[in-house]
Amino acid sequence: MNTVNVADLRNHFRRVSARLKNGESVKILRRGNPYAILSPLPQDKNSKPVQVDFAAQRKAIWRGRRFSDREVAEMRDAELDGE
Q1: Lowest CB count within 10 Å: 15, 20, 29, 51, which one?
Q2: CB atoms within 10 A of CB 35
């Protein structure tokens, strides 16, 4: 079961709904505590799983931008520092 917080649910609902369409349940956390569980409705036996097009999402966000090695290292350091 996947876990998301309330802000992620609000900001990235399309991703969460794709998981629900694939038959996965999602646990929602509010301030770090379990708040609710979203479960998909029963699917038809003939339905196909939805696949998220991550390449298209990346292209829409970054528009083909290439990062230098220095920029990537700075982003990694910022993530590890908790910024």
Answers
A1: 51
A2: 13
CATH of the domain at 61: 3.40.1620.10
Range of the domain at 15: 2-41+50-81
d(CA 45, CA 60) in angstroms, rounded, equals 33
Give the integer Cα–Cα distance in Å for 40 and 21. Answer: 7
Average pLDDT over residues 75-83: 79
Q: What is the largest CA-CA distance in the chain?
A: 49
Count of the separate structural domains present in the chain: 1
